[in-house]
Specification:
heterodimer; A: alpha/beta; Pyruvate-ferredoxin Oxidoreductase, domain 3; Rossmann fold; 3 domains; four-stranded parallel β-sheet; 38% helix; 17% strand; globular; B: alpha/beta; eight-stranded mixed β-sheet; 11 helices; 12 strands; 30% helix
Chain lengths: 588, 338
């Protein structure tokens, strides 16, 4: 068991040193002493016996049996991943470990941890059945299987450990191949079940008083959508198709039928958004959730939602692309697709979440803007946020604003579906069942009265009005804030899930005495109205994002008067703090 | 409230070609709806007409009801969303053979499998009309079209078999010009709780004129088609002198009065039979070996998706301790920071 941990540490250290991908994670993989939250390192306990490391809280707990779990569960951080060998969690062993019930997870109150249930003993036996080793020796190898799982989850290469095994078993060569095989099988198994560790970096800020819970980004997204439904009084309908890493939102929503949530697992991505559009027409708060490839499939229907001016929230939990890409890895590479990926002139509001718990607010406001402004809104989150979790001070719904969609119940004379509110440009929402408001919508261009029109002037007018409606959302957005001095040498610009790293980098730079500030965007289209005022106050602007420069290009188009430097990374991995610090120092 | 056909006609000009079969289907819909509303107790605002893209998908504009003219192939998915969002609505869908069976094939079979309570009117003219004459999934093998100048080399779908394969609960077929029969079919479709598919064999005068003429010509129609009604013996022919029997498990055309055949020896149509074996044979009857079957061929009762959704929502709500967002937020494992 000790060996397993050491191998992991060694692999991490070697890997980290050589290509400096994870210097955030120290070689000892021990978390700082003290708080449960607010650490960016992690440690690994792989235990079949009690491990006494008081004061250390772990990010991954591997429990080989019920007793090990009972002894060590208290060290698992609220955001921890807990790997459990389900083969050992039978009634006899659970009782022997001294549990009061047959449900150790609930009894230990760790049900909100990221628990990975795996039949590790069975899989190890299967892996080594042709190895020629005896049963006892085979079962002993389950540690190596688990190590393989951890290597996958933390992006550690197997080569260092292969080399180590070859050296260690030089005198017992028969053990080399079985150990390598079981390590490799564990790695692949974790890939197949898409085991994902929570690697979210949170700021080590002092916690405010209050009641806290742990929440993942996908769960927070689902809850934010339910909250918007409750505030608006419109029932929530989610039409979706399973896709990594967004599926957990659909799964979470499916639980909450008690709050009137309807989920429809559609036959494909297109049906996901189209059922949602139908539900929006019928007066529900409609949502569809997906990841990059799904967004591609939904493009045509997004155009339909846009031209019919129906409220819809599309959540894209971004993953590494293009095409299938690296589905379990995080990226911010769908921004351009979200902004532009449709036929015709089809601007759509785009907002982003910046941390796992912020997904709640982001989803809530996406719903508010979609319904009040009668238009689709794309919410961009990231695999890193969706699967990541963090402690969250539980808000109260009375702290959230009302959501008042422009629902119409009756009208004088013929109803004109595309007549607009003079201020927001939102049209009225008249759903079937309301007498006297019978009207037709559709993908064909219409005039204000809702009659098909291919009149050139009308088309130009409607295109301009729909774009203006999106632009006018800026009148309703909060002002963009800057963290750090009002004027400085460098303004770090970011958006979405990179916030934790950029924020930490900002503080490191400030601690070094550098004059640096951070401007992190939650609202992308439209941009907050004071964006240009902010940019003008800084000597240099560096846009940092997990793509090749999609936000930077967008800013160049929107605010061409500024120069934008870039720091980009497209490795399917989050930023690390050091590379941001280095990039900023290089331009200072 | 009592309605007339006029109440369902919109003020928009109908833009189908003169002679297009869609006109007659629209007329039958306009005439059927007053009956539907009376029988079901619907007021007009509860009706929604949804379509995809294609000639027939223009239909919602010609209805003075709520309507949604969507995108190619996706009408069934939109209809599904409308119905699940508000199960009180009466949802009707107009779609063509290319729209529903090619680009929208996936949505079509899954709506049928789920038994969503929507009424699908499938305008089958065996051609792509709006794009000016390319073959469709129901075009006959060997048919010469703009994209098959040497004839198609693919077999067509028989839509009814597709419906049965997808566990369909209602299937009817008719000719565009059978206005009275079509009213009857639409009323039956509306009365059916579940997904109703009404295949209308329509004539495209421009790109596929006469596609159904071997059976639809008035001169031979009675001899080459058979109108099926549940519980009635399968009689057909201008002189009502022909019928169908089952021999060795297979349908057979017989002449009444010959070889001891009398009307009471004929097969009686059972649209309510859960086992679709005979219905499938009826659906696949083709001229010249058989008359083509028209009318409601299958109509069986099964729980609908939308009812099950509604029931589950009620059950979960009743059993749950959490009734609002604030309670959800505070549920499960929490801790307090002082």
């Amino acid at each position: 068991m000790q060996l397993t941990g050491t191998l992991f540490a060694d692999a991490s250290a070697l890997y980290g040193n050589e290509i400096s991908t994870f210097p955030d994670y120290p070689a000892e993989i021990r978390a700082p002493h003290g708080t449960v939250s607010g650490v960016s390192g992690f440690q690994v306990h792989i235990g079949s016996n009690e491990i006494n490391t008081p004061g250390d809280f772990c990010d991954v707990l591997v429990a080989m049996n019920p007793a090990a779990l009972r002894a060590n569960a208290k060290w698992a951080k609220p955001t921890a991943t807990v790997i459990i060998d389900t083969d050992t969690f039978d009634e006899a062993l659970i009782k022997r470990a001294g549990y009061a019930t047959l449900d150790p997870i609930t009894e230990l109150q760790i049900e909100d941890r990221n628990i990975i249930y795996s039949p590790i003993t069975t899989l190890t036996k299967e892996s080594l059945k042709d190895s020629g080793m005896d049963q006892k020796a085979i079962v002993r190898c389950k540690n190596m299987f688990t190590l393989g799982m951890c290597f996958y989850m933390f992006n550690r290469p197997l080569e260092f450990t292969y080399a180590y095994l070859e050296k260690k078993f030089k005198k017992k060569p028969a053990l080399i191949e079985p150990n390598k095989k079981v390590l490799f099988d564990g790695f692949n198994y974790a890939a197949n079940i898409q085991a994902i560790a929570n690697t979210y970096t949170v700021k080590p800020a002092k916690q405010e008083k209050g009641v806290y819970r742990n929440i993942s980004g996908n769960q927070a997204t689902a809850w934010g959508l339910i909250a918007a439904s409750e505030k608006s009084g419109r029932p929530l309908f989610c039409g979706s198709y399973p896709i990594t890493p967004a599926t957990a939102i659909l799964e979470e929503l499916a639980i909450h039928k008690n709050l009137g949530v309807k989920t429809l697992q559609a036959e494909d991505e297109i049906a996901g958004i189209c059922t949602a559009i139908g539900a929006a027409y019928a007066g529900n708060f409609a949502v569809t959730t997906t990841s990059g490839p799904g967004l591609s499939l939904k493009s045509e229907a997004l155009g339909l939602a846009m031209i019919t001016e129906l409220p819809l929230v599309l959540v894209d939990v971004q993953r590494s692309g293009p095409s299938t890409g690296i589905p379990t890895k995080t990226e911010q590479t769908d921004l351009a697709q979200a902004l532009y990926g449709r036929n015709g002139e089809c601007p759509i509001a785009v907002v982003a979440a910046h941390s796992p718990s912020h997904c709640f607010d982001a989803a809530f406001y996406a719903g508010k803007y979609a319904m009040e402004h009668m238009m689709p809104v794309i919410l961009l989150t990231e695999g890193f946020l969706g699967n990541g979790s963090e402690p969250w001070r539980i808000p109260s719904m009375k702290d959230y604003p009302a959501i008042k969609p422009p629902v119409i119940d009756r009208c004088e004379g013929a109803f004109k579906p595309f007549e607009r509110d003079p201020k927001s440009f939102a049209r009225k929402w008249a759903f079937p069942g309301k007498a006297g408001l019978e009207h037709r919508v559709g993908g064909l261009e219409k005039n204000t009265a809702g009659v098909i029109s291919s009149d050139p002037e009308n088309h130009a007018k409607m295109v301009a009005e729909r774009a203006e409606k999106v632009a006018r959302l800026a009148d309703y957005l909060p002002e963009q804030k800057v963290i750090g001095p009002d004027e400085a040498d460098v303004l770090i610009v970011g958006w979405g899930g990179t916030f934790g790293h950029l924020y930490t980098a900002l503080h490191e730079l400030q601690d070094e005495g550098k004059r640096v500030a951070l401007c992190h965007f939650d609202f992308i289209n439209p941009l907050p109205k004071n964006t240009a005022d902010i940019f003008a106050r800084y000597k240099k602007i560096i846009v940092c994002e997990l793509n090749s420069g999609q936000f930077a290009d967008y800013l160049r188009a929107k605010l061409p008067q500024f120069d934008y430097l870039q720091y980009n990374k497209v490795q399917g991995q989050p930023f690390i703090v050091k590379e941001i610090v280095d990039a900023v120092n290089a331009i200072l | 409230m009592k309605y007339t056909a006029q109440d369902f006609k919109s003020n928009q000009e109908v833009r189908w070609c003169p002679g297009c079969g869609d006109h007659a289907v629209l007329a039958a819909i306009h005439r059927a709806l007053p009956v539907v509303c009376e029988q079901r107790g619907y007021s007009k605002e509860r009706l929604v007409f949804i379509s995809g893209i294609g000639c027939s998908s223009r239909l919602p504009y010609y209805m003075d009801t709520f309507g949604f003219h969507s995108i190619h192939g996706r009408a069934t998915a939109i209809s599904t969303g409308v119905k699940v969002a508000n199960p009180d609505l009466s949802v009707w869908q107009a779609c063509g053979d290319g729209d529903a069976l090619a680009i929208g094939g996936n949505h079509f079979i899954h709506a049928i499998r789920r038994n969503i309570d929507i009424n699908i009117i499938l305008f089958n003219n065996q051609i792509y009309g709006l794009t000016k004459g390319q073959y469709s999934p129901t075009s006959k093998l060997g048919q010469i079209t703009k994209t098959s100048p040497y004839g198609t080399v693919e077999n067509p779908f028989t839509p009814g078999s597709l419906v049965l394969g997808a566990r369909g609960t209602f299937f009817a077929r008719s000719l565009d010009s059978e206005i009275v029969l079509n009213q009857e079919i639409f009323v039956a479709a509306a009365a059916h709780d579940g997904c109703s598919v009404c295949e209308m064999l329509t004539n495209c005068v421009i790109f596929n004129d006469g596609a159904h003429s071997t059976i639809s010509d008035r001169e031979y129609r009675a001899d080459r088609t058979i109108i099926l009604r549940h519980g009635e013996p399968m009689v057909f022919g201008k002189e009502k002198d022909k019928g169908l029997i089952l021999e060795h498990g297979k349908l057979k055309v017989v002449k009444i009065g010959e070889n001891g055949i009398t009307v009471d020896k004929l097969l009686v149509h059972d649209a309510h039979a859960e086992d679709p074996a005979i219905q499938n044979q009826l659906i696949n009857m083709k001229y010249p070996d058989y008359p083509v079957a028209l009318g409601v061929i299958r109509q069986v009762s099964e729980p609908t998706y939308d009812d099950r959704v509604r029931d589950q929502l009620t059950q979960v709500k009743e059993a749950s301790k959490i009734t609002c967002m604030d309670e959800l937020l505070r549920s499960g494992a929490t801790w307090t920071v002082e």
